[in-house]
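Quick note —
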Amino acid sequence: MFGYIYPDFWIGGQIRDRAKKMELQFPFFLDVLILTMRAGLAFSLALEQAVKIVPSGPVKQEFGRAISEIRCGVSRTEALHRLAERVQLPSISNFVAVVSQAEESGGSLTQSLNEQAKQRRRERFQKAEKLAGQAPVKLLIPLFTLIFPILFIIIGVPLYLDLQAAGMF
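Predicted structure written out below.
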């Protein structure tokens, strides 16, 4: 039974860990991409350069795979849509939508990506605030189970002994 259920739990944990790493690495990747585009590189070259600069991890792997697909003849939009389908993260899906929309409308891709990078930073900050707000509640469990009983013993035993010596018990 254990050998049947454990692989599903293990793979699920690996998927969650990979998604967390992607969420952490993606804002940095986006910043590098914007910087290289502002330096004058076209989107495709900036994407390749950003993949080279980003430290190894799931973002580098997935965008490297998208670049490989583009080199093999798949359109850039299609390769990015495949990336979004593989990863299934809202931030990556938004990135692909922004790139596709800017490509179709001919708008400024750098400006759109800059706004998206600001949004990713804002989301990350809000997530950190939420976790910080949950910390006091999570600290109550160890407080009530470990610290308060010891405190009651420290205060209660001498009080009990004094009352017993006085003849109250």
